[in-house]
Amino acid sequence: MKNIIFLISLFVFVASCSNSNPKYTKNLATAQKFFALHGEENLEAQLNLISKDIESEPPFYGSEMIKYDIFTSMLKGYHDAFDNIKYTAKVWLPGTDSLGVLDGSVRTYGEWTGIQAKTGKQLNLKGYWYFGFDNKGLINAQGDFFDAGGMLDAVYSKNLVHVSFEVLPGKMDKVMAIIDNKGGLPKTRTYDGCISIELSINKESNTIFVQENWESFDKFNTYLKWRQTEDTSIAEMIPYLKGGASGLKIIQGNSNYKSY
């Protein structure tokens, strides 16, 4: 009986060790081709590998899953932003479903290198990426896990906008409610071209300071025009600011950015 139990256990062990998914080899080749085409900036060929139903997970803090249109525009954005981009995989791995069963998906750890086109700064980005596939072998799931903020700080140019406004006594809670509302700075952060936003308050002077970083001042000015002509958030804050509309100060540096 012991021999029978031992043989059964050995069979299960061997079977589990040799567990594989027949789709993995093909899907691995697709993932590798997708990365190679990214380095070639061949967006059209990349799109041929992507399902219209793709859901992608961006690396930015607090971001939500994105669909096909945004994902493809993000790919183009990388093509426009970098030259000589190349992915060097440290390892390629088969992925599993939530139960640990190999499902044909692909995982990889590695490093992207390249040159940021506007600044000439070298990209050296380590991270983790995953790919899922539909029954046709098209990529229908994808995720990026890397230090997106660190990458932006390291290689992108900064177009900083400094905003300050003094709040009337006793009105700070009302102003912050407008700012924190989904139509306030959270909306600004998701506006096209906005890279980052930081806010701080000086309690002694009752002044709010906001520093924003944009891909370009043109995109910021487009956003500002929208705020001033179509949106109501600024108009809602004006009655609570010292000096009214003139108390809202916006400063744009436009040259000689340096980091020390």
Radius of gyration based on Cα positions: 25 Å
The overall pLDDT average reads 90
**How many domains is the backbone divided into?**
2
Structure annotation, total helices:
9
Could you say which structural class the secondary elements and strand pairing correspond to? Answer: alpha+beta
Adjacency order of strands in the biggest sheet:
1-5-4-3-2
What percent strand?
A: 25-35%
Describe how the helices and strands are arranged.
Elements: H1 2-17, H2 24-40, H3 43-47, E1 50-57, H4 68-81, E2 82-96, E3 102-116, E4 122-133, E5 139-145, H5 148-155, E6 159-166, H6 172-180, H7 185-189, E7 194-202, E8 207-214, H8 217-229, H9 233-237, E9 249-252
Parallel strand pairs: 1-5
Antiparallel strand pairs: 2-3, 3-4, 4-5, 6-8, 6-9, 7-8
Description:
Strand 4 (122-133) and strand 5 (139-145) form a beta hairpin. The strands form 2 sheets. The protein has a 5-stranded mixed beta sheet with strand order 1-5-4-3-2. It is elongated, with a radius of gyration of 25 Å. The relative contact order is 0.11. Helix content is 35%, strand content 33%. It folds into 2 domains: 20-155, Nuclear Transport Factor 2, Chain: A; 159-252, Alpha-Beta Plaits. The chain starts with a helix and ends in an 8-residue tail after the last strand. It has helices at 2-17, 24-40, 43-47, 68-81, 148-155, 172-180, 185-189, 217-229, 233-237; strands at 50-57, 82-96, 102-116, 122-133, 139-145, 159-166, 194-202, 207-214, 249-252. Residues 6-18 have low confidence and may be disordered. The chain is an alpha+beta fold.
